[in-house]
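User: Here's a structure from my thesis project, written as structure tokens. My advisor, Dr. K., wants to see whether a designed sequence matches the one we expressed. Can you design one independently, without my sequence as a hint?
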């Protein structure tokens, strides 16, 4: 009986993996993060989310197991310095609209990483949407120049 429950849990996790990057209402692409250099123990992840559903949605929160803290951040120039801060309340994603998390703009911030990120690594991040619920995505780590 115990074995059966474990097997069912496994199967349900495979089912959610099959949905990677694509819940019916969302099209997720260009998912990547920059490798970390030296002793840097924080990293940003980027992606493009298109709402192809019939309803407005909202990216409520993000989480990952590779960092102690994972937050939605916004970078912006202030007094000629690049500053970043957590975004309160998440990000709206109206139907037919595209949300781009990209360098010098919105990003997923991971702080106090459990280990450095090396080019070629892949790690999961969970996005939580108001309508679409939890969506697991797999982030590809690229070089410091943003190239594969
Ligand atoms: Cu940040």
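Assistant: Designed independently from the structure alone:
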């Amino acid at each position: 009986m115990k074995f059966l429950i474990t097997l069912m849990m496994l199967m349900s996790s495979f089912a959610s993996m099959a949905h990677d990057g694509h819940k019916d209402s969302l099209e997720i692409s260009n998912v990547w993060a920059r490798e970390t250099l030296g002793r840097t123990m924080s990293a940003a992840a980027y992606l493009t989310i298109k709402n192809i559903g019939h309803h407005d949605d909202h990216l409520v929160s993000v989480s990952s197991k590779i960092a102690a803290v994972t937050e939605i951040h916004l970078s912006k120039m202030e007094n000629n310095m690049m500053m970043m801060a957590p975004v309160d309340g998440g990000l709206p994603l109206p139907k037919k609209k595209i949300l781009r998390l990209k360098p010098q703009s919105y990003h997923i911030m991971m702080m106090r990483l459990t280990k450095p990120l090396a080019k070629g690594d892949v790690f999961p991040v969970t996005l939580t949407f108001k309508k679409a619920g939890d969506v697991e995505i797999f982030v590809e780590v690229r070089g410091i120049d943003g190239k594969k």
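When you compare it with your expressed construct, this may help: Residues 1-21 have pLDDT under 50 and may be disordered.
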